[in-house]
Design goal:
The protein has 204 residues and is an all-alpha fold. It has a single domain (2-188), classed as MFS general substrate transporter like domains (Growth Hormone, Chain: A). It has six helices and no strands.
């Protein structure tokens, strides 16, 4: 659970960084007008949405073809988080045109993570613990929505540049790759005991 929660947090840190700061980054750092910024931002978010749908379909087909959930979900999650880290790092020093291409690539990787982040809770938690598992994982993961905009604002204010903000997002994403790939040893159903999840009153 802690590995999945850490990975979820690391994914969300980079995601909320892009979500909250993309408009200002395009306008302030690269001089795009507001109409162009809106079109570019819409295109990047559209890539994310399409990628999530395609990845969900690919994941299911891969498992139906005989692959284990461990292989499918770990492969896609580790690949996606590593891709986010690489694109964020490259974007730190890229020019306007290359930045747009890298952000679109990052959106594709963001989409790759979404189906499997939530599938982890269902696979590991199973019918006895999936709800509790997802509640804790989502709570920890979405703390990034509080921290990423604040940290980015502080960094940009102090440095007057987005370079280190992208570097931080890249390093956090890399930590997420390790969380999904190493901290979680195997993604497979857990045999929960009935007593371990029973209400306290039922044990008296």
């Amino acid at each position: 659970m802690w590995g999945a929660s850490l990975g979820h947090f690391c994914h969300n840190y980079a995601y909320y960084f892009v979500l909250s700061w993309l408009p200002l980054f395009l306008v302030k750092a690269h001089g795009f007008g507001v109409p162009a910024m809106a079109e570019i931002g819409a295109g990047i978010y559209a890539v994310h949405a399409v990628s999530a749908v395609v990845t969900g379909w690919v994941s299911d087909r891969w498992i139906v073809a005989g692959a284990t959930p461990n292989r499918v979900q770990k492969t896609l999650l580790v690949t996606a988080m590593a891709g986010i880290a690489q694109t964020m790092m490259a974007c730190a020093a890229a020019g306007p045109t290359l930045s747009i291409a890298l952000l679109a690539a990052a959106a594709m990787f963001f989409g790759m993570t979404i189906p499997n982040i939530y599938a982890i809770a269902q696979t590991l938690g199973g019918h006895r613990a999936a709800g509790q598992w997802m509640g804790i994982q989502n709570l920890i993961g979405n703390l990034a929505g509080v921290l990423a905009p604040l940290i980015t604002g502080f960094v940009v204010d102090r440095t007057d540049h987005y370079y280190w903000a992208f570097v931080i997002a890249a390093l956090v994403a890399l930590a997420g790759s390790l969380a999904f790939g190493v901290v979680i040893r195997r993604i497979e159903p857990v045999a929960w005991s009935e007593i371990s999840l029973a209400p306290a009153t039922a044990l008296k």
